[in-house]
Amino acid sequence: MGGLRNYIIRRVISSIPTLIGISILTFTIIHLAPGGPLKFSLALRGDISPEYLLEMEKRLGLDKPIWEQYLIWLKNIITGDLGTSYIKEVPIIDLLQIYAGNTLKLMFSAQILAVLIAVPLGIISAVKQDTLIDNTARFASLFGVSMPSFWTGLMLMFLFSVKLDLLPVFGARTIGAVYDYSMAAILDEFMHMILPVTVLGLSSAALITRLVRSSMLEVLNQDYITTARAKGLKENIVVYKHALRNALLPVVTVVGMSMGFLLAGATVTETVFAWPGMGRFVVQSTFNRDYPAIMAVTMMVALMVVVTNLITDLTYGFLDPRIRFE
User: Exposed (0-12), middle (13-18) or buried (19+): which is 255, by Cβ within 10 Å?
Assistant: First the structure.
């Protein structure tokens, strides 16, 4: 346990320069972009005098040099102050409690769906190599990787929402609906999640299926698998007990790394389905030059990726006893 604790501490410390580098790069890019929050928000509200704009710039600290603005932001975020949205005029922490929860629902649901589809399909494809099942699975996975998520979302929306009228088109819940009991509200949100979760899950499942198949094929050709079969072990035991555990190591890596992929895909998917999550929120904030909101979402996503990578590394130790954390 001491070695594991020290390993986690070292990983946490080593991730700090990465997070600082991301914050500096993001802060610099958004401040150097043309326009500003005042031009994209206050100036659109009516006849605002230049003097008032200058006063607002001074109040928001936008008149200071970029490096000084960054140091102020860094000091605030260390103390837990994420700032206030320029557009919504609400503390960022309050907005993230809503948007982050909605995005995490999509991400984890999509990842569970992807694993449930990809792992069995990849195993069957490897065991039935070069058969019709294998060729069909390979074609489906290639198709899933190639298709952009916005196109898949629009096609599913057209089929299940417009033509069949089975699923809601947008949002996280029915607008103006009043529920007599909590289960009805949960069911309504579940119906709204089906399409965006399917879009995210299928794109991730396509990548994981290809990796599971290639990893299983490599393991099934190892000498110890041949020895296990020569001993007369049943094929199911050989595949699921001996081969699958070793084949899952690279799969765990991709599943962990795909969390960042899902976050990127969630930005497009949430926009297509008008899902109130971090992806859609950061798109709107970028258009409006809402600097505190952009920085808060970016750092939260970066932190989630760092934590996911750490969990992925720790999972190796449970799958492979040869791995030790020192």
Answer: buried
**Does residue 248 carry a pLDDT above 80?**
no
- Give how far the C-alpha of residue 76 lies from the chain's centroid of Cα atoms, to the nearest Å: 26
The mean predicted confidence, pLDDT, of the chain is 79
| pLDDT tens, position by position, 156-184 | 888 888 888 888 887 777 776 666 667 77
Provide the residue type at 265 as one letter.
G
Two structure tokens written together for 278: 């971090």
- Name the pLDDT band for 321 (thresholds 50, 70, 90): low
pLDDT at 314 (0 to 100): 75
Given a cut of 60, is residue 44 above it in pLDDT? no
DSSP-based three-state secondary structure for 84: strand
274: left (phi over 0), alpha (psi -120 to 50) or beta: left
Q: pTM of the predicted model, to two decimals?
A: 0.77
Q: Answer yes or no: are the C-beta atoms of 228 and 134 closer than 8 Å.
A: no
Cα dihedral 266, 270, 276, 281 sign? positive
State the CATH class of domain 92-319. mainly alpha
What does the alpha-carbon distance between residue 52 and residue 177 come to, in Å, rounded to a whole number? 42
Domain boundaries, the chain: 92-319
Question: Hey, how many other C-beta atoms are within 10 angstroms of the C-beta on 139?
Answer: 10
β-partners of residue 84 are: 91
Phi, psi of 91 (to 5 degrees): -55, 135
Distance (Å, rounded) from C-alpha 107 to C-alpha 119? 18
> Residues 174, 239: contact at Cβ < 8 Å?
no
Contact 49, 95 (CB under 8 A): no
